[in-house]
Amino acid sequence: xxxxxxxxxxxxxxxxxxxxxxxxxxxxxxxxxxxxxxxxxxxxxxxxxxxxxxxxxxxxxxxxxxxxxxxxxxxxxxxxxxxxxxxxxxxxxxxxxxxxxxxxxxxxxxxxxxxxxxxxxxxxxxxxxxxxxxxxxxxxxxxxxxxxxxxxxxxxxxxxxxxxxxxxxxxxxxxxxxxxxxxxxxxxxxxxxxxxxxxxxxxxxxxxxxxxxxxxxxxxxxxxxxxxxxxxxxxxxxxxxxxxxxxxxxxxxxxxxxxxxxxxxxxxxxxxxxxxxxxxxxxxxxxxxxxxxxxxxxxxxxxxxxxxxxxxxxxxxxxxxxxxxxxxxxxxxxxxxxxxxxxxxxxxxxxxxxxxxxxxxxxxxxxxxxxxxxxxxxxxxxxxxxxxxxxxxxxxxxxxxxxxxxxxxxxxxxxxxxxxxxxxxxxxxxxxxxxxxxxxxxxxxxxxxxxxxxxxx
Length: 457
Ligand code: HEC
Prior knowledge:
Radius of gyration: 24 Å
Number of helices: 5
Strand content: 25-35%
Bound molecules: heme C
Helix content: 10-25%
CATH class of the largest domain: Mainly Beta
């Protein structure tokens, strides 16, 4: 509707469209240079990942960097592949949305067409300051994950890793953040916390730290070998899902009193399925770690979680079995029994995924939009945080819909020719499929929908 216009930001209030950002500064200048026009765009939208220490393997900081990638930059921004933000912003908005304006996309196209000129060097803006070794700041404590060696060209590994710690006393944490050592080999992490009663465990550091979940025996045997039980053989409390990581995910700090954790004096993080993949080329050591940000606020409203679909509280319908050379549409539905306030959502599919949509149908039949991903991208599966919590009234049905493409039209199809692909006991292997919609929430309290989740970095 707005294509060809120079201003692209608009807000729809009822039927009235208010156009903003149409000022003269938004006109495309005649002569475009890196230092004057392109660096400001890259520094606000790209260098958070494309810098030394960022999660992309190359930097876009200097003129030489940008020039070397000029045509590739022009291509990825015109195709809306970069910055990576698969969620449709005309459906719902989230914290930390990464989108380039049409104006900035045009600017980059024209710069490249004009020969990617440098411009006056004294006009180069300063690169923003980024936190080191964290996505959000300086942690109060850093706990190393046992380094792991990956041989070149080895197959995917799914590891159970124990990360034990001891503190001087019980402590509240606002954020627990997993930081991968090697972004290109660490795919995802879902971590729980083992909470020991002080007098029931003498030494949290005994036992092995790593178990391979493909080669290994049963989970209980693994737990015992890792020394997880109390001294008397009983099991300590396990708090699920306290630390999660997926590529491009930035840690989220909630307002005081929301979320947060109580870390007992003696404990361990249990990284359930640290997934290592794609080690083509070289042997590597991965040294990941966990950052803890303390707070003086007790976790009065701990974040809760449920998931629809594979391994979740509501089944995938019809069954997730995708015949070769076919496409498939599935849904999963769950009716919430009480009022809840949604904080984040995380859609999850593998390589055959094409599109994902989720919404809630209220008892009065109104629809609450949750998320729409028109072009599924396996590489970017964020936990999307709402700008304000979304209230879902009791009796509403949350519906998640997924589309899969198991034909040769899908360039991500892992099989040529296509083969039958199915859900397999929640197998995480990218060649098996999954359909999940993970929701983190709080029991609803009056006024939740007015609390901003944006300003609490
Ligand atoms: C959330 C992190 C993130 C942001 C933000 C981001 N990128 Fe990327 N980009 C990546 C990653 C990761 C890759 C994949 C390559 C790799 O493994 O490093 C990539 C790949 C690319 C590629 C190479 C594509 C190819 O053909 O291999 C280009 C060019 C690129 N990005 C440009 C940009 C530009 C321009 C921006 C800003 C407008 C941007 N990126 C923003 C993380 C990011």
